[in-house]
Amino acid sequence: MLSISSRLSADGTAAFGFGGDYNPEQWHPSVWQEDVALMKVAGVNLVSVGIFSWALLEPSEGRYEFGWLDDVLDLLQESGIRVDLANASASPPPWFSHRYPQSLPVTANGVRLGYGSRQAFCASSPEYRRAAAALTTEIAKRYASHPAVVMWHVHNEYGCHNQPCYCEVSGAAFQRWLERKYDDIDALNEAWGTAFWSQHYYRFDEITPPRQSGTFVNPTQVLDFARFSSDELLDCYRAEADILRAHSPLPVTTNFMGFSMGLDKPIDYWAWADHMDLVSNDHYLVAEDPRNFQELAMGADFVRGLASGGPWVLMEHSTSAVNWQPRNIAKRPGELRRNSLQHIARGADAALFFQWRAAKAGSEKFHSALLPHAGTDSRVWREVVELGADLVAIAEIVGSRVCGAAVAIIHDTDARWASELDSHPTIDASLLNETRLWHDALYRLGVTTDFRRSTDDLSSYGLVVVPMQYLMTDAGADSLRSFAGNGGTVVITYQSGIVDEDDHIRLGGYPGAFLSLTGTRIEEFYPLHEGEEVELTRYGSGRVFSELGRPLTSEVLAEFAGGPTAGSPAITRNRVGMGTVYYVGTSLTPAGARELVTEILTASSIPVPQKSGDDVEITRRSDGTRTWLFAINHGSADAVVTVDGVDLLTGAATEGTLTVASGGVAVVRETVA
Ligand code: GAL
């Protein structure tokens, strides 16, 4: 991964990126001078420009007007503020959609979406692709050597509003994609199980996208369409990134939405990450989620996985309320600081926001910004300025990596997509919820977790959690088997390893892919009623799911004590080679998960930090020589953390223990023992 941190300061000293989306075109040029003056006050050193500027940059087809953008970039350059320059392909202008209405996306029920918002295009549209490439070429030619520009921002949040598209053009592209994948139609028929319901195809050109039909559409068709749709957008990204790279050596990125409220669903981020010079992510808190800080931590851990463990860019978050949730709750004093430093604690080398100046018009006028409607005499502005100073105080950490993660959580995109298909045992089983349950149990104990794919090298971990990885390839199952065989500990939950990559059941007892690992054979699922809990003989109660099965080689740690499968194993432990595999056949309560995780960590000799309070988050970054401990207290009581060193935020030395006030943060350069 490339880095931009040494280009953010005048003297080349590495700095955290601090700033956000800057949309000067929404303001009269007389405001721009004040913008840069205030950016300097706050310590802003990086802004993203041009993301939604297509309509102004290209007023009619092939006619470009860059004058205002030249002025903005020159002004930023004079002020020493660096630019993440967009290629502006995210929002085709009205003239484009008007002229090429066939480029507008179509929903599964055949409705062609209108324009007037953003991202109004079909990823397979040749007109869109041609126009985006032409615009990107002009921008690359004009600004490749502009001294303010340090990186390229392709598009914006791919797939956020326009995916998947079910139009005829997408349908034809889907047929070509399928032909490349399967080569012959019989292979497709086999993979899609088309003997069912008379779905046999004789030619690729008979196939359509999985449009709305009378009832459930073929699930493998839906799964392949999800894969195709992600690939189709990736083609768009790659074409535009290639143009930028041909004109300039600067790093190219596009902003991901890792785990964001399901908006990330259309994209296989693992596949995309290989095409980024720098991984970047947007994260917005769900204001009404009482543990939204843990959801933030999980999202950041996932993005760090996409960045192969190295630093990444937090491209957007919010200083306070957003505009698009049912109730847009403002952040409380100190929350902005905690959120930003939390991302940094988990590997971000930049804390950028949407957006610099709060808009006065348009759909996002109630969205918070670094500079609020109220101006500089405001709580948000004061907190922004303080955060700018904090980032300078901890600048020595830039470029270091999060260290000490002894636990990995497996998250395969195909498993996620397949787990969300129709006609499953219960709508209450959710891969994301189950992932969050296990991440949260580890989070409460202060244990840092990485995210990995099942086929990744897992050898550096002591414990690997497999939460509801419903679809499992042979390669993934082999990888986990050898991890366990070599002495690792694995936790596998219900609804894991149920199907192969074609969404075909693995026969002979569940969980088919993992039977030899779990040593527990499940013969029938017994999903629970909505809200029902069944008692277990240990670890509290189970929710969502229960199962009828029996141990083959495993030892039963807990049985279902009540409910339809009373007496059947709920939690088992199996020895596999030199390792241990736990199987959990239900969704535990947070308390039950904590109890089990604590036992597993102890049995696996994985250290747990010394701290008081569940909501005190502990992580470390290291540059190989020095380590820094981040302690962030989201709880309502002060907390005590065991650490020796100097808190960079206050300059105070700590010996042995440090008290982190409720809502407070400490970033301690640790004393080398
Ligand atoms: C992001 C998007 C930004 C802005 C922001 C508002 O998803 O990239 O352009 O819309 O949300 O929260």
What can you tell me about this protein's structure?
This protein is an alpha/beta fold. The protein folds into three domains: 50-278, TIM Barrel, CATH 3.20.20; 407-603, Rossmann fold (3-Layer(aba) Sandwich), CATH 3.40.50; 616-670, Immunoglobulin-like, CATH 2.60.40.1180. Strands 5-4-3-2-1-9-8-7-6 form a nine-stranded parallel beta sheet. A seven-stranded mixed beta sheet has the order 12-11-13-14-21-20-19, with helices on both faces. The protein has a six-stranded antiparallel beta sheet with strand order 10-23-24-29-26-27. It is globular and about 75 Å long. The two termini are 31 Å apart. Bound molecules: beta-D-galactopyranose. Beta-D-galactopyranose binds at residues 156-157, 282, 284, 316, 322, 354, 364, 367.
The CATH topology annotation of the largest domain reads as: TIM Barrel
Assigned CATH superfamily of the largest domain: Glycosidases
Low-confidence stretches: none
Output the strand order for the largest sheet: 5-4-3-2-1-9-8-7-6
Helix content: 25-40%
- Average pLDDT reading: 97
Strand content: 15-25%
Secondary structure tally, helices: 17
Name the descriptors.
9-stranded parallel beta sheet; 3 domains; 17 helices; binds beta-D-galactopyranose; Immunoglobulin-like; Rossmann fold; 673 residues; 7-stranded mixed beta sheet; TIM Barrel; alpha/beta; 20% strand
Q: Brief description of this entry?
A:
The protein is α/β, with parallel strands linked by helices and 673 residues long.
Outline the secondary-structure elements.
Layout: E1 17-22, H1 30-42, E2 46-49, H2 54-57, H3 67-78, E3 82-86, H4 94-99, H5 126-143, E4 149-153, H6 168-182, H7 185-192, H8 219-247, E5 252-253, E6 255-256, H9 269-273, E7 280-282, H10 292-306, E8 312-316, H11 335-345, E9 348-353, H12 379-393, E10 401-403, E11 407-410, H13 413-419, H14 431-445, E12 449-452, E13 463-466, H15 474-485, E14 489-493, H16 515-518, E15 520-527, E16 533-535, E17 541-543, E18 545-551, E19 555-559, E20 569-576, E21 579-584, E22 587-588, H17 590-603, E23 616-622, E24 627-633, E25 639-642, E26 645-647, E27 653-654, E28 657-660, E29 665-670
Parallel strand pairs: 1-2, 1-9, 2-3, 3-4, 4-5, 6-7, 7-8, 8-9, 11-12, 11-13, 13-14, 14-21
Antiparallel strand pairs: 10-23, 15-18, 16-17, 17-22, 19-20, 20-21, 23-24, 24-29, 25-28, 26-27, 26-29
The protein binds beta-D-galactopyranose (GAL).
